[in-house]
Amino acid sequence: MPERDHTAVGGEVRQLWEKGYDCVEKKNYDYALELLSMALEQDPSFFECRMALRAAQMKKHENAGRLAKLAAAATTAHHLAQAKLALSKKNNFGALMHAEKILCADPENSSGHWVIVNASKSLDYPQTLISSLQLLKRVNPKDNKLTEELAGALEMLGDWDQAEEVMAQLSRLNPDDAYLQQAYRDTAAKATIYRGGYEKMMEGGEEEEESNLPSDFTSEDVLEEKIYYMEEKLQDEPDNYKLAVDIARLYVERLDFERAFEYFDWVQEKNTVGDSAIDKAIAEAHEAQFDYDLRQLNPEDPNEADEHARLIEERNVFMLKNCQQRAERYPTMLEFRFELGEWLFRAGDVNEAIHAFQRAQNSPGHRLQSLSYLGQCFLQRGMHDMAVSMFEKGLQEKSAMDDQKKEMVYHLGCVYEEIGKMAEAMEQFKSIYEVDIGYRDVASKVESGYM
Fold this sequence. Notes:
With 451 residues, the protein is mainly α. It has 24 helices and no strands.
């Protein structure tokens, strides 16, 4: 079973994760540890949940007193013995469970993280493996064995962009580590080869000079090769529906929508069990096809403007209905509830959008966006005090002035502007102006105040 994210896990596991994450936000760390541990026991492949558990472990440890830490550490010996026994019997899931109990007492316990490293290798859980190796590397920055382990794990992940980024960061933190510097150079070279589409040539065993590589070997060729090998694999694994969906996604990337939907139709016919990840992939494919068709039309051309407008309306109606169906089919999937809220908001159905976003704000991954949308909904309805409350609540949870924070600050300024509180409005607009003069119309708003 490969590692999975929140879109691919079962409803009960997802609910435990969401409740546990909410407890972390509320600083109820003991209950968070209990809920997140329960979720992982049911689905050890749920990587996002494991990272939420790690955050809860760290936070609890930071806030614990010295005696509490000593008492907790006393329990690690038993769980370490159980974890090693589980590894010796190749019970990797059991080993992970005991390792997490060790980390609940001491989140930087090296022995606990090595258990996770060894179990993750056997289970082919690269992200879990890398997360523990990174922590071990921070604790032991000069350990060359760790460097080699980490480089190998990143290759195992197969995400060369992420591998190169992580290795670059580690190399900057450890400029005197010759092994790490070489590992970074090797990873960067392989990432370049992968992006250029030269994997197949290198697998032949002969290293070619860059000047001898075919100049017409494009990313399209790489995509075609990936599809070919995945289709070959599917012949040997006809029940691997995830693989079939991944192939369909690649056809969407190639803009071959007809072939993509042939795979989606086949998966739906063969897989009788409801799967939210498959339904989401199909919805994304439909939206991609609508967007592609829209790009073929010029809304400024009088001969194409009507067709462009008609297609936008068709897309909006289709996607709204699709979102409603998925939200009803998977009532615990708050991600779908958020998506439904977005389409309702676009359609101007503010009341129903509010219902959707109020549910979606309980999703850790969509909380801030939901609060921002709720503020905009209340603003449209003239409920200015409630709009201010939503924006301020979101801003309390956001420190960095990124695009998401700029949007909330901007809308908060607009609320103050609408109710005549110009000083408060100007304060919000200025905070954006200081970091991004080109954001929307803040330049004209701020500069007009000095005239």
